[in-house]
Amino acid sequence: MMFWFIPLVIFLAVAIFSPGPNNVIAMSVGFNYGFKRVIPHLLAVVVGFSIMLFVVGIGIKELILKYQSAFEVMKYLCSFYLLYLAYKIATSKPNLNTNEAKPITFKESLLFQVINPKSWIAALSIVTIYLPKDNFLAALFITIIISDILIVLAISTWAVLGKSFNKIFKSEKTTKIFNFSMAILLVVSVLMILFVE
């Protein structure tokens, strides 16, 4: 049956485009440093989620489902890391020289993908709910490609939106307000990770 990918694409689009840590980070970096400086984060999200989806798909799902305590550890690691990123965003100073500024690096972003429990839950949901049993490996690779395309579109959209806001709000004061707002959004996402089941 060829219609398995329709509900999958709907799920992926909602999960990937909706406001969340990766998109908030992309918007913040786009606002403060421009689109080019978002590319390491974008690549880290693509690489991290692709590997995660592949690993879950080829068999680690049983292990993850068996050891629920691992999710709890990942949840708290992710939360502390996001709070650290929120602090960095909130306290970052407006810097007109974007060549000297230092947004999130590829390594930092990749580390976040590894410990992000929401990404693991999304990968588990995809593998256990949306993928067909027949031609499973082919479906898994198609899903990885679709998710990569959607991630590139989503991160790019949020980054461009951030850059557009920068053109509107150019003063140091409005930049600080924007950064603080993005930090608050990250803190809200942490609270959702911790307290929303």
UniProtKB/TrEMBL annotation:
Q: Which ranges does the record mark as transmembrane?
A: 42-61, 73-90, 110-131, 138-161, 177-196
Where in this chain does the entry annotate a coiled-coil region?
none
Q: What does the record say about its membrane topology?
A: Multi-pass membrane protein
Cite the InterPro entries for this sequence: LeuE-type
Spell out the subcellular localization from the entry.
Cell membrane
Alphabetized, the UniProt keywords read: Cell membrane, Membrane, Transmembrane, Transmembrane helix
Q: Give the source's domain of life in one word.
A: Bacteria
Main location as per UniProt: membrane
The record's listing under PANTHER family reads:
ARGININE EXPORTER PROTEIN ARGO, ARGININE EXPORTER PROTEIN ARGO-RELATED
UniProt name for this protein: LysE family translocator
Q: Which organism is it from?
A: Caminibacter pacificus
